[in-house]
Amino acid sequence: MEKASRGNFFEDFRLGQDIVHAVPRTITSGDVSLYSALYGMRFAMQSSDAFAIACGLRTAPIDNLLLFHVIFGKSVPEISLNAVANLGYAECRFLEPAFPGDSFTARSEVIGLRENSTGKTGIVYVRTTGHNQHGAAVLSFVRWVMVNKRAPGAVVPETHVPTTAAAVSAQDLRIPEGLDFSGYDCTLAGSRNLFDAYRPGEKINHIDGMTIEAAEHQLATRLYQNTAKAHFDAVLQQSSRFGQRIVYGGHIISLARSLSYNGLENGCFVAAINGGRHVNPAAAGDTVYCWSEVLDTQMFESRKDVGAVRLRTIATKDISCADYPAPGGADETAILLDLDYWLLMPRLSL
Amino acid sequence: MEKASRGNFFEDFRLGQDIVHAVPRTITSGDVSLYSALYGMRFAMQSSDAFAIACGLRTAPIDNLLLFHVIFGKSVPEISLNAVANLGYAECRFLEPAFPGDSFTARSEVIGLRENSTGKTGIVYVRTTGHNQHGAAVLSFVRWVMVNKRAPGAVVPETHVPTTAAAVSAQDLRIPEGLDFSGYDCTLAGSRNLFDAYRPGEKINHIDGMTIEAAEHQLATRLYQNTAKAHFDAVLQQSSRFGQRIVYGGHIISLARSLSYNGLENGCFVAAINGGRHVNPAAAGDTVYCWSEVLDTQMFESRKDVGAVRLRTIATKDISCADYPAPGGADETAILLDLDYWLLMPRLSL
Amino acid sequence: MEKASRGNFFEDFRLGQDIVHAVPRTITSGDVSLYSALYGMRFAMQSSDAFAIACGLRTAPIDNLLLFHVIFGKSVPEISLNAVANLGYAECRFLEPAFPGDSFTARSEVIGLRENSTGKTGIVYVRTTGHNQHGAAVLSFVRWVMVNKRAPGAVVPETHVPTTAAAVSAQDLRIPEGLDFSGYDCTLAGSRNLFDAYRPGEKINHIDGMTIEAAEHQLATRLYQNTAKAHFDAVLQQSSRFGQRIVYGGHIISLARSLSYNGLENGCFVAAINGGRHVNPAAAGDTVYCWSEVLDTQMFESRKDVGAVRLRTIATKDISCADYPAPGGADETAILLDLDYWLLMPRLSL
Description:
Three copies of one chain form a homotrimer. The longest helix of chain A has 17 residues. In chain A, helix 1 runs antiparallel to helix 6. Chain A has a single domain, classed as Thiol Ester Dehydrase, Chain A (Roll), CATH 3.10.129. In chain A, a hairpin with a 5-residue loop joins strand 4 and strand 5. Chain A is globular, with a radius of gyration of 20 Å. In chain A, strands 1, 2, 3, 4, 5, 6, 7, 8, 9, 10, 11 and 12 form a twelve-stranded antiparallel beta sheet that branches. By secondary structure, chain A is of the alpha+beta class. Chains in contact: A-B, A-C, B-C. Chains A and B meet through helix 1, helix 3, helix 5, strand 8 and helix 6 of A and strand 2, helix 1, strand 4, helix 6 and helix 7 of B.
């Protein structure tokens, strides 16, 4: 029996299958520093222990997207090593704040399977959950990927397509325990635009661009222990449909999140990801820009000091976002990411 | 109102203006590791907790230049986002040692303004100060930058050019509290050349060279949360006068500091920067070399175990420093940096 | 006297010479994060504090190869700065586990010297030992390097070629104190293939490949404070026999170790390196693959829960390892590394 794994193929999955993923991971302040160097994150809550402590937390929390990438990475060897494409995300909720020194594990449940008409691939739907060392769920999300079949004629399980929410309900967003915005300092955070300054329909060009280097996306993707070959193996990729290594989609999400600080300075927590699509692959040399549209704003019954802003952030390559390019338009081929998510923001009462 | 900031232009500044910069920052041991990987620093005091503890400190201090870059980075969005050039530094003093886990903030006072004769730009002089979480000032420096005007015809403030000291007086240098060189180990530090071995006029070729990669300077500059577009946006830079991304000047300072270990092994603290000039911009692919000249040596009344050595370090690109090339000479176009600073060194009585 | 060092030449060494190396070094969790980002290590023991604690350790230990690179790096300025080639390793034993926060120093004893027949170079054999802040030896290894003579006619010491063991005896391997595999979780570690699943003669293709970027190997090599010019100075290397910067050999060892996780998931500690050869140099752009052969398996009298597996791991560039290419074969020029080492693994009784 071959000891090295080639990953699962479509016919290897079973509906309801519960997969405990390998490689538990402690996220340390070293990982946070690398994350900072890779993206240049500037949200004050994750940048400064003193700032986070002033807001009731015990120290600066780990960026939720770093946590997402680590949990996602654990699921790759069993879920998407033989994936043709990452098709989508849904119902991603951040459930507990994570702090440097916490240790995480991940597991996935297969919640849907559907063979494609070609008979060569199928779509696998999983719900992946991350847990910390206390056994608490810190993160849960659904994703679906198109996975190759090992053998075109293989018998496949019955089709089941799960239903997922179009968006996480604002009332289901978790506000980190202990968070208290009475000590929030807008000047240090970088803007006086708090929750109440954002209106549905508003568009924000985040202006700045960042060029991706191969070493950067490789360092990032290894930091997340994500083993997808497409990101690392230039020889193998020469014969792929892309002809070169492509960038882990989550790298684009974090780049866009970092660039979006300029205009969303007080959007201190990504509380949920409602959906996301990697419209085109990115490669080293691409320069990423992004813009955001406010889709919705919601207040909470229980908390007058915090609101939720739902955003659509679109990232492009090599074209500015001054004209708000979107999928379906003339610039379709330049669109990298179309992401729908909820941010928590302090409210103006401050 | 546009939410994303495009930074201040010359006519936005006022003499005496006090700007509290955004994005407080905790510097952790993770940041120190990245700094180490980016430059290969080998000064024992910052490299080993055990070594620093033997010298009376509570743990290895953060390299003063890392602290400088972080405080500098905070000032970029409001001071130099629209800068044409970083013209100079003066009166940079390191006031308190910084340790991993400390959280920093920065503020700048506008101390001078002068419109250029073209009417298109002006020079902004600021004094920037970094504070730690206890409110203590850890670093203060003056810098002046040439900043674009938003509108050529805009009314500008009255001219005021501040006077700055040609050099920090040795008696104003701060010796880190608790520092005690009686436990200093020259062998571990890498040389028996202590303070008394250096004489004014002496020149040291630091021999080694280091080639800059784009991923490296981008990682560094993001680590410092420095947002200047010239370092990150290859598309935008194609139409700049440089035609490509250029390297953050502080990256060259740290590279030169690291290379200068070979010959200045016991120069364990940069105590002050008297002045500095980025003679030419650097780009990925350049190989950096450097040499130093001893400008002055000073002893302290109160401390017989420590002396201060004033150095001029010149960094070049792609040419060796065996012949001590300097600005104004035949190799002018190969000079990157001309830096004047004070180092603290243990004395021979050891 | 020139203050900057140009390193030792062959005629500078004396048999029995004891060299205390400079630059003591604390390895922090930040260094561990960088190591993770550079190689994508996935061995659970070093990845998760919670996993390591469940196995009786006080926290996740530092990867033994990271420790090796740091101790090796300290020896470079005095042993191999003028080396033409790293010829071999022997008797490398890891003696005590190392944890983030430990501070290390290194010293080397010259145990052999032999001038080459050309009269231009000689071989220097050293035994290098690393110590932690408590004075305990953590690592010891022999290496031999071909070093240039300063002057071809220089008088050289008498020839002495030391004898080194072909392999470390399994009974001399150190099992980390406190290690207890009763809490070992195979699922989290990534495989049910424990010690008893491996048989001498078995070959494992580790499948995956990883392309090296210049920024990556430079960051790694600087992290180890290794100053060998061949890795950093592109201008100097243009006139070398390689024509370009070459990758620190230890970088290939760690890449191979990381790739070998796929098939050796439970090989949680590198306990010894019996020998190693860098068959060909690697450069940025090379894609590394590797395969392993089980050379031996050994059990311990005192410990029924742990066994030792001796492996030969061969790394290649730009060719897959499906056909198990080896030195001496048709693919000789594509072989980067031939490494012989002992892994500790939990036993099936679990």
